[in-house]
Amino acid sequence: MFDFTFHNPTKIIFGADKEALIGSELSGAGITRVLLVYGRNSVAGSGLLDRVIASLGKSNIACSQFGGVVSNPLLSHTREGVALAKRDKVEAILAVGGGSVLDEAKAIAVGALAEEDVWQFFTGKEVERALPIFTILTLAATGSEMNGNSVITNAETRQKYNISSPHAYPRVSILNPELTHSVPLDYTAYGAVDAIAHVCEGYFTKQPGTHLQDRLVEGIIKTVIETTELIMAEPAHAKARASFMWTATLALNGLTPAGIGAYSFPNHMIEHALSGIYNIPHGAGLSIVMPAWMKWYLPQNPGQFARFAREIFGLDSGEAGIAALEQWFVKINSPVRLAEVGIAAADIGTIAKNAEGLARQWGIGGIYPKATIAEILRLAV
Prior knowledge:
Helix content: 40-55%
CATH class of the largest domain: Mainly Alpha
Structural class: alpha/beta
Radius of gyration: 20 Å
CATH topology of the largest domain: Dehydroquinate synthase-like, alpha domain
Strand content: 5-15%
Shape: globular
CATH superfamily of the largest domain: Dehydroquinate synthase-like - alpha domain
Distance between the termini: 38 Å
Largest sheet: 6 strands, parallel
Order of helices and strands: EHEHHEHEHEEEEHHHHHHHHH
Mean pLDDT: 98
């Protein structure tokens, strides 16, 4: 166990129909005008958007609407949201949707109070302030509802970069698991992969001797696997959807890495290049990258991989554990080879060069130069 400070300022309201409370939560914070950020069709078509607007109206909160957020949210659209937030002088950002919507909403919250272009905060400038952020989550995966992270894609440069700041934590996040019952099974699978990847990054790259954190991670992984399989068999399985939603939140809210010391996020670093260039779903990219990276990294931490195999799958070797995870990704119909998402082996050099830039920004460029990233990706051919 290493020294640490843990502080998570996000208030979670969990349960059926809790989105009706958003108006009172905002008014209780003294907010009178919000920018409502959402995606494209599902939020409006399901009636959720109308319910949220009704809740705002009951609390006399004015609302400017900003829809059209896409998976792998775009810098160009984010800039439009920043301009709207400034024009309408909103006092807070309300995100209604999945991780992409929440990530873009956070970027808008940062940009709305800045004179600089918002992209500067994704390329190294420190975030010093942001508008208050409130969220209503509709897809369990990224943990953005309870962390200070935001990931945006610059389509011009094909860079998918992030910010991580205490100013980007939501004030309040409402999690109604019933809103996830209609999530398609492919995106449920991608969410499961993402949650597993979040906890595996630190689990494998940290220093030894953090037994509590290991057990927390293993519990999260096993719960994700169990609940995902229940959902695949019965998409509206209420208990499984609820457990899955909260588990995905815990996977990236700062709890599992507290006390583990230094660690890194190599799988996400490489995957951001995949989805930044080819616009594939983030979870689909991770299910391709993770087994390849694990095979490459296994000799550097054989004991932890053996533990993973034993505790998660009841197997006796690291190699067997990696194979079992890869087969589980196949079982839930998440891709494990580059060709499955239309990426040719000839493209590996381009991907590796892109990822190398992010590796340098994340302080792991010495461990992951272009040649090493390419070596890892060749294991996913």
